[in-house]
Every structure is written in structure tokens, then in C-alpha cells.
Amino acid sequence: MKGKKAGAVLLLLAVLAAAVIAAAAGGGIRSREAALFQEKAALLREYALADWVRLELGSAPAGEAGNAVFFSVCDGTARASVFTGTGSTVDEAWDSAEAKASAALQDGETEPRWVKADVVYLSETVPEESLTQSVRQARQEFFRYGAAFDSGFDTALLEAELNGAKIYDYENGGVSLKALNRYLEKAGRTPLEALPSAYTLFQCAGWFCDEDNTVYELSASGLDYGRRKVALLGADYVKERILSASAFLESQVKEDGSFIYGWYPRFDNEIENYNIVRHASTLWSLLCRYRLAPDEALAENIRRTIAFMLENVRYDSQGRAYLYESKSDEIKLGGCGVAVVALTEYMDVFQNREYEAVCKALGEGILTMLNQDTGEYRHVLHGDFTPKEDFRTVYYDGEATFALCRLYGLTNEDRWLEAAKSAIDHFIRADYTQYKDHWVAYSMNEITKYIPDNPDYYAFALNNAQKNLEEIARRDTTYHTYLELLMATFQVYDRMMDNGGSTQGFDLDGFLRTVYIRADRQLNGYFFPEYAMYMANPARILDTFMVRHDGYRVRIDDVQHNIGGYFLYYTNYDKMVQYGLLTSAGIY
Q1: Taking each helix axis from N to C terminus, what angle separates 32-48 and 8-24, rounded to the nearest 10 degrees?
Q2: What is the rounded CA–CA span in Å between residue 373 and residue 72?
Q3: Dihedral in degrees, nearest 10, Cα atoms 191, 195, 199, 202
Q4: Cα–Cα distance measured from residue 458 to residue 445, given in angstroms and rounded to the nearest whole number
Q5: Residue closest to 418 by CA, chosen among 372, 452, 387, 380
Q6: Is 588 exposed, middle or buried (0-12, 13-18, 19+ CB in 10 A)?
Q7: pTM for the whole thing?
Q8: Confidence class for position 29, pLDDT limits 50, 70, 90
């Protein structure tokens, strides 16, 4: 949450005190960088050493080390430098850590754009065997404890350091000595000859100061550990996340219209395994961005990405079109579907019919993969249009059906709607609610626009969410498609109410509560600077979305799905509030 800036007198006194500390540490005349750091440290001190924090700390929260404080300093272009201080009181620990950071900044090589203060508030010493087992049993990157490798915290790393530099070894358990020493050596610290027989695990209360000297309190526990607290996930706040993440996607568009596919940001490694289906779906996100903030440069990027996609469309001898994946020499049903979705979205945004012909040709291709008697699809063809696989992933069914509904909306030709009805009847018979599929939710939202009086459709669409609400609410990862599923379902519910339908036992309160839970949890996958500062190149991935449990992966489709869910949250926010969103979420 945003905090107020310190008063001028208090700030001046704090900075002067910090200067004395730096001089005592051998800093002499402060560099500009050290002075900027001390200004931010003074602001952080006002929050981190407030009376309520002191009451929470206890006598020795860091065990034998007494009290422990960490300062993380980052210029936004390289991994943060972290400095640790200990003492018999939290003030002594703070002064020690601040003096170390100030001394290090005297060389003027690091701009303290971001400064984060972490104060240890709980710790426990455990044997090596216990740590090994705990890490092995945890989800990747989800062991959220810092670790001291000695009782005095001489070598101690924050959770964000340990996970950000891949020091925790989730496959074998415990700590990788090789990764640890590589990290220590790069930080100019003394490597360890061997791992200890016991560790002190700890968690911190944290505060982050940004480039504008605004201080944010960070969560001290739970799944959002280390992330800034957000008092209200309102429409304006979500819109900012959409715009920033969409700007990231736009920055990834290359001259030929393809995207830089993704990044593993811990070591700034590019992901090169391109996927044309995900290219097509990512187009949708850029169009959402255009709806919120249109500009011609963005429009040109959108046209280039469409042109690249169309270069990968193949036509058979009868003029039917398919999206072709060259690396595997195959045609995927889902690719044909999301290509239609992207192109119809473009035509709706720009109010033209530029791609109607190719959409209809792609629709013809989809029909060749649908058995309209059973409503079942064939999922994959060879590049020469011959059958390859009947089934690849259940998501293809929803993508293709969504596209058929979109084609009906574009052309008003009944054959597209009849084909979509065949597929949806199969969804109902085969109980596709078991898959928790967001694309099925999109399909049901789309078809009920054109068939608004079928109670079976409403019952199935709502059950697709309600049957899975408990699991969706409980899921610990960001699982970005869940918010899309919920938001598409909300639109179905609202349409049903507008058409005089029955709630059919739908738990609206539980549903809205789950919407807010997922929208908030999705922020755990947003690269706020307090997360990004522990990556190799923070500037590259700042203010976009990642998947923590896959090495903090940032891939175009990850970003697209996050934007998709938030875009629907934003556009439906006021209506959800009218239905009771904030009351259900316990906001007020």
C-alpha cells in the first residue's frame, strides 16, 4: 500500500544520521548514490521500525544472531545487491546493514533506483535433513523461507535470492552448493567450502521504496509473501496492469511480425521454441490493449503480427484454410480456432471486414475436423491435411467451438451456429465441466449471445464454474486461465439474469468471492519490482506476468491469459460490484 513521505525535518535528521554511520564505516564524503540510498533508507526506517513492528519482533527473532535486517539495492538493470546486518536490537541490526550498503555504494557504480528493507520476524533452526525434505516436497520455487548458513547470519540469503538464483534444489532437495557459491562469488562474497549440518530458516516483514520514493508494505506470509499489499483490486488498478503487460507484449514484436517467444528471467535466457497457436492467441491481448488505449503504433504492430500469422495459413485443394505449424509439420485444431478468434476480434475493433474471407476458409477447415453427428473433433492433421491424431488436448475443442460461434456472429450463416451447437451438445453429454476449461467458458458465453433462451446452456455454463469453485479458490499457483473461466461465466450469468432466467441454485456469493481471490492471486505472478529485482535483468521483464513454478517463466501466452482474465474483470467490474463482489470478498 502507498505510504506518505517522511516530513522534511525527520528526513533531514535521518539522512544526517545515516551519513555519520557511513563515515564511521569508512565512507568519508558520500557519493551521490550513497546519498540517494540513505534518503530511501530513512523513508523505509519510518515504516520498518515503527512501534508496531518492534512489538511484533520479540527479543531475538533471528535466533542466536539476535536481530537481522537486509537491504536489497537495485538499479533496475542487474540483480540486486543484498546487505545483511545483525545486532542485539533491531536498530543495531538496521544500522549495521545500512552502513554496509552505504559503504558499497561509495564507488558510485550502482544507482539505488529500488531499495527494499527486510526485517526478520521469525526463525527456526532445522537440521540439513529437514531442509532437504521440505524443499523436495515443495512446489518449484514455492519454498518461501530465507536461510542462514550459520547461527550468526554471516552468510544468510533471502527467500527471493535463493529462489531467484536457483539455489534451492527442488529436484534433489535442500541447497545446491554449486549454485550458492556461484551466486556468492558474483556478489563478491566468500563462498562456502561445504554446506552446514543445520540451517536457520526465516521469514521477514518487508518494505519497498521505488524510484519515486514511495514506500510499499510487503506481505510477510502466505502465497503473496514479499509482494506489495493491495488494499482494493479495483478497475483502475487492474487497468494499469493490463496496459503495462500489453506494452511488454508490444515490445516483443519483431520486424517480421513474430514475437520474442519468452524468457527465463533468472539468468535472462530467451525461450526459442516458437508456437504459432500461441502467437495467434497473443494477438487477442494486443487488441484488448487497443480497446483501452488506441494508438497508431500499436495498430501497426497488430497488423504485422496478423501478417506473420497469415503467412502460416495453408489452403487445401478445395480452398479450406488451416493454421500450419512448420516446426512439427502439422495442423492443430486449436490453432485454426484461435486464428479465427483473433481475426474476428480485429475486425470488430477496427470496424471492417478485411479478413472475412480467410476466417470463413479457416472455418471450413475446422468443419473438416468436426463430426457433426457426434460433436467430436479430430485434433491434429499432418501438413498435407491427412489425419494425424484424434486427440491432443481438450482445450482445442473449446477453441474451435468459440471460433464457430464467432463466425456466426460475423456472417449470420446458420451452418456455423449449427456446428457449434453440435460440439456444445457433446460438451454437455461428456460433462466437460470436469476439465475446468476456460475455452469452454468462452464458447458458452459466445453461444448464449445468439441463443439466449436455452436453460440447458446456462445450467452447463454455470456448473462449469460452480462445480470447480472450491478447487479454483484453493489453487496455490496463479493458474491464469481460471480467472478467464470465471469472468466468461460471469458474463453468462449476467446475460441469463437479463433474459429472466433462474439462478438454478447458483452460489453467486461464493462465485464472486472466488473471482476476487483469483484476481488477487494472479498478482503473485506479476513482476512488480520487488520480485523483478532478484532476476538477472529486471528491466527486461518488469511489469509483466510470469509463472513462478516454472523458473519464473515469461512467455507470450502466459502474458496473454493474464491480460485476458483481467480485461474481462476490468470491463465487468462495476457490474460485479453491483452484484456484491466487494461484500462477498470481505472488502466491506
Answers
A1: 120
A2: 62
A3: 40
A4: 9
A5: 372
A6: exposed
A7: 0.94
A8: low
